[in-house]
Amino acid sequence: MSKPTKGQWSARALPGARFAVQVTPRARHASLTDAPEGMIKASITAPPEDGRATAAVAELLAHALGVAKTRLTLVQGATSRHKLFRLDE
Fold it and tell me: What is the distance between the alpha carbons of residues 73 and 38, in angstroms, rounded to a whole number?
């Protein structure tokens, strides 16, 4: 799957929902795909420096969910490829 359209995953945008994301930085194109066991694979073009990759993942996930990126909170994985986000109300 390529870059999701805005709100494509809006059915998943439930307050308190958690999203486990495996990140591939410096990809050629940004994309989100479902992976086994409820994981989401995110490919982003940003490098893993100074939090730019994490910010890019949050922006891409928020876009797919159709919510403001300020509603996503990084719960775990600030410096890891495996991140856990929570959707706030």
Answer: 18
Angle in degrees, CA 71, 51, 80, rounded to 5 = 90
Report residue 83 as tokens: 């991140």
Q: Which two tokens stand for residue 76?
A: 């775990």
For residue 2, name the pLDDT band (cuts at 50, 70, 90).
Answer: low
Architecture in CATH of 10-87: 2-Layer Sandwich (3.30)
User: Do 27 and 43 meet the contact criterion of CB atoms below 8 Å apart?
Assistant: yes
pLDDT in tens, 20-70: 999 999 999 999 999 888 899 999 999 999 999 999 999 999 999 999 999
CA separation for the pair 13, 26 (Å, rounded): 27
pTM of the model: 0.91
Amino acid at the residue 65: L
